[in-house]
Design goal:
36% of the residues lie in helices and 14% in strands. The chain is of the alpha/beta class.
């Protein structure tokens, strides 16, 4: 059984990204916490009080940082594995991506499991937060921990799973205000993991009956949202052909109390656009071909090209020559008010428009221009030129900086304005999803 008392725990949060840093910061208000990340530059920035994800503000971060490993609550940040050896609770928050063929890539999770195994001690508990399909924790990760540590599962060490529910860029539904699912490898460990998270989650916790149930609950959250958005995207394409305003249809339908008011748009990021593939992979492994899940993925993965083609058609209808035309794309991150460019579907719009030999300008005040260039090989400006006029303007991401944008000041006589996010005044817009 897990015999760690809450008042005697020392927590290592492994992975200091969008999930790990807020978690480490909150736990550090109550416990001795060591935040570990292999990226030395990231650790250095955080030790200076700067978080480029904007999930934790400088004041909050500096308020919990400590410079030594003295006992007591506080956060020590490091890129050295030896610094977390003394910890007895390890919380894993590394990403779980897909490869170029949309197959789950568990290599980051297995590598970090191997790393933790090298310092695992009798009595330790390892908790995973990364999104996975049912069975990954106990069938994939735990065997690595056992094999490389020489310890016995549920005898010498224990495991838990508490899926992350971070919503990047959302300053209302923050970590402590979102109910947390918890689970453990045996009843005592489940109680311990639940108590641990209850110490910081004011919204409360839900203790699942098993690790597999907790894993499944997480992966279907985003699969469900993906399917719902795919349905609305398909409706948008239908209504476009019928000459009906999709937003007005949704507003009318939303007058019924049980209508789910999803909006059409691009589905990227590290969760909704990825997690359904994890569930689909496991389904196929057990001999079931998931029809609805993969159909939703096909619809949503095709929306970037659809948007680009619609913009070109609208420009042609106004007599604008496409090759060599000037188009401004507003926003490049995967969602509004968030600097994360991982798996952004705006790149699909960019690639399609470049096929038409359009001269593109991409403006995003939050995206890291160097990261965009390194990852996608394109230029992205943080500051918008005030003197340039465009043949087409496409609002792809509704950052709050764009709320009061005067697109008319950047427009030529026949400029087409396409608003994917319904963020601009209706009288300024030519095309919407």
């Amino acid at each position: 059984m897990s015999n760690i008392l809450l008042e005697k725990i020392s927590i290592a949060v492994v992975g200091l990204g969008y999930v790990g840093l807020p978690l480490a910061t909150e736990f550090a208000k109550h416990f001795e916490v060591c935040g570990f990340d292999l990226n030395a530059e990231r650790v250095s920035q955080l030790n200076g009080g700067y978080d480029h994800t904007y999930e934790v503000d400088s004041e909050s971060l500096k308020g919990v940082l400590i410079n030594t490993d003295d006992s007591g609550s506080g956060l020590l940040l490091t890129d050295q594995i030896d610094d977390i050896k003394k910890c007895n609770v390890f919380i894993i928050t590394v990403p779980t991506p897909v490869d170029r063929y949309n197959r789950p890539d568990l290599s980051p999770l297995l590598k970090v499991s191997s790393m933790i195994a090298s310092i695992l001690k009798p009595g330790d508990t390892v908790i995973y937060e990364s999104t996975v399909y049912p069975g990954v924790t106990e069938d994939e990760c735990v065997p690595v921990l056992e094999r490389e540590s020489g310890l016995v599962y549920n005898v010498d060490f224990f495991a838990g799973y508490s899926p992350e529910r971070i919503n990047p860029g959302d300053k209302e539904h923050t970590l402590t205000k979102i109910l947390k699912i918890t689970s453990g490898s045996n009843p005592d460990t489940a109680d311990f993991v639940d108590s641990l998270y209850k110490s910081i989650i004011v919204a409360g916790t839900h203790k699942a009956e098993s690790i597999k149930i907790a894993e499944a609950a997480k992966v279907i959250e985003n699969a469900q949202r993906d399917i719902n958005i795919a349905f609305i995207n398909e409706l948008a394409m239908i209504f476009n052909k019928l000459g009906i305003d999709t937003n007005k249809v949704l507003n009318a339908a939303s007058t019924k109390w049980n209508f789910l008011n999803f909006k059409p748009g691009l589905v990227g990021g590290h969760c909704i656009g990825v997690d359904p593939y994890y569930l689909a992979q496991k389904a196929q492994e057990v001999g079931y071909h998931p029809e609805i899940i993969l159909a939703g993925r096909r619809v949503n993965d095709g929306m970037g090209e659809y948007v680009a083609d619609q913009l070109v058609k609208a420009m042609l209808s106004k007599g604008i020559a496409i090759a060599g035309s000037e188009v401004l794309i507003l926003g490049f991150t995967f969602k509004e008010n968030c600097p994360d460019v991982r798996n952004t579907k705006v790149i699909d719009i960019v690639k399609r428009l470049l096929e038409y030999q359009i001269d593109l300008t991409i403006h995003d005040p939050l995206a890291d221009s160097k990261q965009v260039n390194d990852t996608y090989g394109i230029d992205c400006q943080n500051d918008q030129s005030k003197n340039k006029l465009y043949d087409g303007i496409l609002l792809a991401v509704a950052h709050h900086q764009f709320k009061d944008l005067d697109v008319t000041s950047m427009s030529k006589e026949k400029t087409v304005v396409y608003d994917i996010k319904y963020a601009l005044p209706h009288d300024m817009v030519d095309v919407r999803l």
